[in-house]
Amino acid sequence: MFLSWLGSADRWLLLKINRDWTRSSLDALMPVITDIHKVPWFIYGVVPAALGLWLWKGRKRALRVLVVGALAVAAADALAYRVVKPWAARLRPERAGVAVERRGRSSGGTNGFPSNHAANAGAAAAVLSIAYPAAAPAFAAAAGLVAYSRVYCGVHYPLDVLGGLLLGVAMGWPWALLMLGGSGADGSSRKRRK
């Protein structure tokens, strides 16, 4: 009973986001956000410039954060794709016969739970938030935007992206605490105040 209700609510919210709560400007923007990793100017321009500047300014600390982030994203991606997706075997909306408005070129494979895009974004946001706590809201917003874009573009249910975000954070948070020592980018301790 509850699972049936949850599935119906998930489908209802998908259709609201994908078909009703839309704007022409978002119709153009969301496919770019969802597939930003496939956009040449981003991959060959923005990413190298941002990484170069970050590593130049942050030196060893930035390199550690980069390595920990890459490991956390790789772990989240592998767990989502190789373990959870085959086990859950939840079809993507379009493959399940849901009349979604597909936007963009990214459809992915047959199964949708959890969203790898959301898992990767969640892992990266968790690591970066531990390393740079002052910017944590921006990292969370960026991960949320990637997740939302997947639903807006019609390739995932809302619970797919929520599951992906949670899996990503669950992978990124411990990696960051273990490898970065729970300190901010400036090396200061992040202990709780009493």
Please tell me the overall pLDDT. Answer: 89
Give me the CATH fold name.
Vanadium-containing Chloroperoxidase, domain 2
Tally of alpha and pi helices? 6
- Residues in β-strands, percent: under 5%
**Overall CATH architecture:** Orthogonal Bundle
Describe what this molecule looks like in 3D:
The protein contains 6 helices and no strands. It is an all-alpha fold and 194 residues long. It has helices at 2-20, 24-34, 40-88, 116-131, 136-152, 158-180. It is globular, with a radius of gyration of 18 Å. It has a single domain (23-180), classed as Vanadium-containing Chloroperoxidase, domain 2 (Orthogonal Bundle).
Task: Name its key features.
mainly alpha
Short description:
The protein is mostly helical and 194 residues long.
